[in-house]
Design goal:
By secondary structure, the chain is an alpha/beta fold. Helix content is 36%, strand content 25%. The structure holds flavin-adenine dinucleotide (FAD).
Length: 455
Amino acid sequence: MMLHPINHAPTVIIVGAGSAGLTLAWKLAAREVRVLVVEKSPRETLGRTWVNGVEERLFADVGLPRPAAPLRFAERERFIIQAPGGSRLVVHKPAVAEIDMRHLSTALFAQARLAGAKFRFRTKATRLRVRDGSVTGVVLRAADGTEEELGARCVVHAAGHRPLPGTAALGDAAPGGEVDPSDFCVALQEVYAISDPAAARRHLLAQHLEPGDSLSRIGVRGGYAISNISIDVEKGEVAFLTGAMLKQGPQAARQMLDEARHALDFVGPRLFGGGGLIPVRRPHDKLIAPGYALLGDAACQVYPAHGSGVATGMRAALLLANTLVGALRSSDPLDEEALWPYAALFMRSRGALCAAAEVTRRFAESLSPADSDALIERGLLEPAMSQAVLACLPFRPPLHRLPALLWRVLGSGEFGWRLLRALRRAAAQERHYRRFPATYSPQEFHYWAERARRG
Ligand SMILES: Cc1cc2nc3c(=O)[nH]c(=O)nc-3n(C[C@H](O)[C@H](O)[C@H](O)COP(=O)(O)OP(=O)(O)OC[C@H]3O[C@@H](n4cnc5c(N)ncnc54)[C@H](O)[C@@H]3O)c2cc1C
């Protein structure tokens, strides 16, 4: 194997061309930062191969037009949540766009390339290069086995939840870490052709569903597990999404999807799809180190209540781009102080909502099938709440509604108290994240992290 010396160093190397890394590349290149994105997959297979629900308002915030087909996979009129006993809650016009991730990646790639970002596909970052406590570059391996060491003022790990090899050389300054297996959700999303449209229509009628509905069955295998189905007879497609905590078994999502699919007599050949693990925990405490930042799944920037990482990672990319543009001008080297605004801005905003949603996820895991029904039947879960949760927005019920809500919670016995405790813990965690240290202070950060760990 050849080891080439550093050549034509970019200013920022982004490892991973997922939605988070591509957004960062676009936003940095647009502000004339020399960016190189390294991606282990070929250009032709860029992006996740399935459909994700992404908050509708993200697109304007990031600077993309309102998504249309084929980027938008479907328009949903109703999102129906159904508990194991059959109780249903209907969310009208969910503020979430169903996005074909292959097209989102293509759109983001085009923007980044147009802005001047450079790309190396079929190239894997095999190790971080660390000197004197700072990340100074990466070791890359091309598809033909050639190795190259490349330096940059900042390396961004946007390559998924696994830490990059070499991180340990940062010692106590190392950000992130391994995700505990109990914090993984295993998910699968697949789209199939409809082989018998008449049978599909009969099924919709029998299930009291309308075209454009998405049916989300909750509590199918443990409280957090979901099995969603959306039938589009006009388009001739049926989409499935299943997810469960990894402790339900690595095959849980596959099994649930196959069960849902085999229960229908109109499902034809598979068209596309894919699956994997989602880190459904609060964001890592430490997002940066000298010359280094974590982004997207690498930072656990996922909304744990429903495992949504796309919008969270893309929003974080905007914050990181702003921080980097300023820091690259004013700080050399890029130490923790220089990169801290990214961490502080993220943790105090979306990070706080994610931390609260981790508490919600743990509560959901504890739900029995009867509890899931009680949530809907007793009006503890309302359409407005579900709409907020779907769109990753904080739910603040209007003051005049609070007494009635509290009455319902207290009238639900032991289950109501459990819910109340979870809501209180979620609110406390959100408040704590909103007090993330505004400037870099190792001691202040240490106390903050200790308290965050206790939850
Ligand atoms: C089935 C399923 C359904 C989901 N549904 C939703 C949803 O509805 N809404 C939502 O918001 N989120 C959803 N998620 C989660 C979401 O897909 C992820 O959170 C999001 O895609 C993470 O984006 P990312 O850019 O951080 O990482 P990724 O998309 O994982 O991108 C990382 C990239 O890095 C590359 N890479 C990895 N290692 C290296 C290396 N060493 N060197 C170079 N390149 C490397 C990979 O090839 C990949 O292209 C779902 C996940 C699954 C599995």
